[in-house]
Description:
Blueprint: E1 3-7, E2 10-12, E3 18-25, H1 29-32, E4 35-41, E5 48-54, E6 59-61, E7 69-74, E8 79-84, E9 93-100, E10 105-107, E11 111-115
Parallel strand pairs: 2-11
Antiparallel strand pairs: 1-3, 3-8, 4-5, 4-9, 5-6, 7-8, 9-10, 9-11
Amino acid sequence: xxxxxxxxxxxxxxxxxxxxxxxxxxxxxxxxxxxxxxxxxxxxxxxxxxxxxxxxxxxxxxxxxxxxxxxxxxxxxxxxxxxxxxxxxxxxxxxxxxxxxxxxxxxxxxxxxxxxx
Length: 117
């Protein structure tokens, strides 16, 4: 029943910014979600963790994005955001949101972010 929808991707020049949104339907992050993570899958590569936030507010970033990306949540809007600054070409890929509950992990369909001149 849980559905995650990513939005906010697009084409941006190196050094630019994007803000990704992960909105939940069929569930409420504040009630059911243990953690929400953002993952990136570059062309031809394995999906990897970019940032993660737990219910308790613990945040983890991949070393490659530390000090450039910020993950945060808005319970009122049932949305988790990923603010991406100082984007690099290697940041290009599909960005996927997942939400871990007590029983499973749900994934969104992804949203494309392209960093190119």
